[in-house]
Amino acid sequence: MSSYLSKILTITMCLLGGALTLYAQNESGEEVYTDSSDVAQDTTLIEEEPWPLNKKGEPKGSQFFVLSAMRLGTDLRPLVQSMTESKMSAYTLYADFMIRNAFFITGEYGVMDRTKENPDADFFRYRSNGSFYRFGIEYNVMKRASTANALSFGLKYANSTFDQSADFYSSGNDYWEEGATLKHLTEKNVNVDWYEFTVSLKLVLVQNLTVDFGFAYTIKKDFPPTAITKAHIPGWYHNKDDRSRLNFQYRLLYRIPFWPMYTEPRQKKKQ
């Protein structure tokens, strides 16, 4: 009888030791091999493909030429000038199309109406009003580092068409006994164009709201003959007759996403 009880006690101790061993292995992170045929598996935590696939088994939007997003906004510089100068009104509308995260096709349109008065200058009153546009392409050197922020280099073309007028005093002619008189000059549809080499840093403030710090080295082509002045050109925003200069833009943009942006090439889904 005692031998029978000793056998039962031995078997019980072995089973208890095995159970404790399995429990210790499970707590320590080691794998426990069990027969999965009798256990119902929970598949709710299995991650699915994050983006829909095309017919080739590739994520939609992962091709080279795909429109990832569009940004809309304005340049704050002319708005600030309009608020600080009582006789200036200017604004710009900006848009760009993001090809994946590598290229930005940009376009901009703006207007300006500016009046300057100075009794001590050659022109007593001067006014320039017109519009401009610029477009070009930028390349993002941070395309693999971030889908939100960007550092881009670009080349753009700009054109401005405007009217200008000036009131000035004529000293008259003493021989004909003509005194000083106020005369008026007007020039219509003055046209000037230039090229821009740009550097732009785009930083996300909050979701989809982006600030764009831009520097542009502008090179103006030959200016058409004018009897008034070559300054105060819409889009040029400068008061000197310079063929080239360094311009600055500070834009506020909002991004409208389309397709997802991929920073790395995606592998095809295994069949």
Shape field: elongated
Q: State mean pLDDT (0 to 100 scale).
A: 76
Count of separate structural domains: 1
CATH architecture classification name: Beta Barrel
| Total number of strands | 8
Stretches where pLDDT is under 50 for at least 5 consecutive residues are: 26-49
Indicate the percent of residues in helices: 10-25%
**End-to-end span in angstroms?**
65 Å
And the CATH topology?
A: Porin
Classification by helices and strands: mainly beta
Secondary structure tally, helices: 2
The amount of beta strand, in percent, is over 45%
Give the structure's gist in a few sentences:
This protein has 2 helices and 8 strands. With 271 residues, it is mainly β.
Question: What secondary-structure arrangement, pairings included, does this model have?
Answer:
Layout: H1 2-27, E1 67-75, H2 76-84, E2 88-99, E3 103-117, E4 125-140, E5 150-170, E6 181-206, E7 209-220, E8 244-257
Antiparallel strand pairs: 1-2, 1-8, 2-3, 3-4, 4-5, 5-6, 6-7, 7-8
